Amino acid sequence: MTAAAAENHAFEADVARLLHMMVHSVYSDKDVFLRELVSNAADACEKLRYEAIANPALLGDDANSRITITLDPDLNRIVLEDNGVGMSREEMIEALGTIARSGTRAFMERITASQASEGAQLIGQFGVGFYSSFMVAEQVDVISRRAGTDEAWIWSSDGKGSYTVAEADLSDAPKRGTRITLNLSEEAKDYTSRWTVERIVKQQSGHVPVPITLIEKPGAEPAEITDGSALWTKSKSEISETEYADFYRSVSGQYDDPALTVHFRAEGRHEYTTLAFVPGAQPFDMFDPDRKGRMKLYVKRVFITDDAELLPRYLRFVRGLVDTSDLPLNVSREMIQESPILSAIRKGVTNRILSSLEKMAENEADKFKTLWDNFGAVLKEGIYEDFEKKAQLLALSRFRTTTSGDSYRTLADYVKDAKEGQSAIYYITGGNLDQLKASPQLEGFRARGIEVLLLSDSIDAFWVMNAPEFEGKSLKSITQGGADLAQFAKTDAPKDESEAESADKAGALADLIAFAKEKLADAVADVRSSERLTESAVCLVASEGGYDRQMEKILQGAGQLPSAAKPVLELNPDHSMVRAIAAQASDAAFREDAVHLLLDQARVLDGDKPSDPRAFAERLQRVFERASRA
Fold first, then answer.
1. What distance in Å separates the CA atoms of residue 593 and residue 590, rounded to the nearest whole number?
2. Interatomic CA distance for residues 435 and 432, integer angstroms
3. What is the pTM of this model?
4. In this structure, what CATH number is given to the domain that contains residue 433?
5. 3-state class (DSSP) for residue 481
6. Minimum mean pLDDT among 135-144, 480-489, 592-601: which range?
7. What is the CATH number of the domain that holds 320?
8. What's the pLDDT score for residue 112?
9. Helices and strands (H and E) in the chain: how many
10. Among 131, 121, 42, which residue's Cα sits nearest to residue 80?
11. Could you read off the pLDDT of 3-57 as tens digits, one per residue?
12. Which of 6, 283, 495, 537 has the smallest number of Cβ neighbours within 10 A?
């Protein structure tokens, strides 16, 4: 019964599309709906505990939080009720009729393309769990009463495009909180089985900080199936790996197993407990532009906020919580941001997580390799942003190199195997690992057996500028400045030329370089003979000062660099094409076309296009016509 006529509302377009997916779901693991509803109920209870700090009257004579699940096999339905904060009419419409999360569209795109086995994982990952109810229910009714008010509201939908909201009869509403009734489909009748529901709750929601009671059928005696004890308050010896994994899933909204669990209690000047997890797979929001962390702050087991920035942004993939008794329960957002206590906690938690990562890297190399594949690009942001941790993060970092194959190398490995007399750690940056391996700038280093770091993450172009050295060796881009390779012998050195041949070749090349400098003066800063080329005819490098080639491209693409500096064009003195052009000293028109074509070839090898496609085509045509007449 309702006290007023129901208002009919259409779902927002994104919600309607999502609900269509839920209603027509073919996912094998539908159990996710129960975990999501329990999680929402626990959050509502925690929110009430927090609001009651400032307004104790909200609790009335019902101070203990609880969640009750009632099964009704005869009517084929489940009722889940909490005595949390509840919802007003406006909150109900906002919470159940719209989706404000920025990840919704990405969720729907992925869930549409995913296999059935991935669907349930995606539902949890993207935080649209309430709507998973429609995987099992033909009709969902939500009655809610906001704590401290005398109004209750009922929301109803069959998940087919619209919902109704009406004022509810107070005699049929909770005194406080929310009651959700799922009228199950015939295929979902197993969810009225006590054994099924108890198994799911204990497995997936056994450690929410609110007791959960199960009523097997209307009128039956309630049975507590979880006690609401906070897992993080127990000692590690009392907790199994399965319990840790279940708690991780409930706090992270993911369905994988954690790659690393960090659980400790700090005592001394500041006392706090941390339970943190490194996910086994990338969270969908890891590259959120806001780069916000997902660690929750509790004070004396009361949830305060998940926006306290308890870890630096380069550890934003870590999920978990910190519980402290050193802060007041009514701590404000402003106090959180300025609190020296929280700064000390943040430093202590960061240190412990990094040291745990170091232990894993040392003792479980294969496991750390997977972790690095998932989160290495984010961890390297700290080299750029956290001066205090720069050396530690550099030592922790793993790299693909020209000699590593499919394995990773550390900078310590690199330094240990460096050539005698090698003063730099050489690297090349770019957006694609395969493209980097084919870069002409690598040729001279490869020919001399000198290892080069292959840096293909976008952050790499930034942190290398903030890491001037490691164990006494500077980091040097092979696409910038001189190569300084003359001191190292090639592994397959060419046969010695006579002095006359060498002099003739040097003279012809010097003449070609002088000619190219004149004709290409508007496009390049310099033209010179290359030490780094052994197979390709040409390459482009940046001048010694300023940015390397990849950094220039990134800044230009972001609109932060109006125009790139002129590059340096290097010519391979041993390449047959360069020698042939150098030998045509008497044909100025041909040489002019040739040097422009060499520059465009270098641009293409660098991943760019010719600067003037029409002029490029015309020059190429003239060179072909000349060759056909020869």
1. 5
2. 5
3. 0.73
4. 3.40.50.11260
5. coil
6. 480-489
7. 3.30.230.80
8. 57
9. 21, 22
10. 42
11. 457 888 887 776 777 776 666 654 556 887 898 898 889 889 989 998 998 899 9
12. 495
Residue of 277, 273, 86, 99 whose CA lies nearest to 176: 86
Find the mean pLDDT for residues 177-202. Answer: 94
Residue 375, domain member (yes or no)? no
Tell me, yes or no, whether 419 and 333 share the same domain: no
Domain's final residue, options 166, 195, 228: 228
CB 536 within 8 A of CB 443: yes
Question: Which residues lie closer than 8 Å to 206 by C-beta, 6 or more apart?
Answer: 226, 243, 246, 247
Decide which of 426, 445, 477 is a domain's last residue: 477
Burial class (CB in 10 A: 0-12, 13-18, 19+), 114: middle
Phi-psi region of 60 (alpha: psi -120 to 50; beta: other; left: phi over 0): left
Position 33 scores a pLDDT of: 86
CATH code for the domain of 590: 1.20.120.790
Residues 22, 138 within the same domain: yes
What one-character DSSP code corresponds to residue 243?
H
Q: Assess contact for 69 and 201: CB atoms under 8 A.
A: yes
Q: Which amino acid is at 235?
A: S
- What is the separation of C-alpha 582 from the centre of its chain, rounded to a whole number of angstroms? 51
Residue 208 · residue 63 · CB < 8 Å: no
In a shared domain, residues 223 and 236: no
pLDDT score recorded for residue 22: 63
Structural contact between residues 277 and 262, judged by C-beta atoms closer than 8 angstroms: yes
Quick one: tokens of 119?
């669907």
Contact between residue 170 and residue 74 where contact means Cβ atoms under 8 Å apart: no
Neighbours of 242 (CB within 10 A): 11
Query: Cβ-count burial of 95 within 10 angstroms (0-12 exposed, 13-18 middle, 19+ buried)?
Result: middle
Name the token pair of 165: 């909201």
Q: Are residues 212 and 258 in the same domain?
A: no
Judge contact between 214 and 69, C-beta under 8 A: yes
Domain presence at residue 311: yes
- Give the long-range contacts of residues 386-394, CB within 8 A, separation 24 or more: 386/312, 386/314, 387/466, 389/350, 389/354, 390/466, 390/467, 392/354, 392/358, 393/314, 393/354, 394/467, 394/470
Distance CA 628, CA 265 (A): 81
Proportion of the chain above pLDDT 70, given as a percent: 88
175 falls within a domain: yes
At position 430, the amino acid (one-letter code) is G
Residues near 267 by Cβ (< 8 Å), separated by ≥ 6?
Answer: none
The verdict on 50 and 98 lying in the same domain is: yes
Q: Length of the chain, please?
A: 630
Total domains in the fold of the chain: 4
Q: Specify whether 178 is located in the same domain as 252.
A: no
Q: How many CB atoms lie within 10 A of CB 70?
A: 21
- Tell me: the pLDDT tens digits for 525-559? 999 999 889 999 999 998 887 777 788 788 877 77
| Same-domain status, 551 and 595 | yes
Contact 250, 39 (CB under 8 A): yes
Instruction: Answer for the pair 86, 178: CB distance below 8 angstroms, yes or no.
Output: yes
* Residue 21: alpha-carbon gap to chain centroid: 26
Provide the domain limits for residue 448: 380-477
Asked, for residue 484, whether it belongs to a domain, the answer is no
**Structural tokens at position 74:** 């005869």
The structure tokens listed for 364 are 């479980």
Residues 335 and 311 in one domain: yes
Residue 102: CATH number of its domain: 3.30.565.10
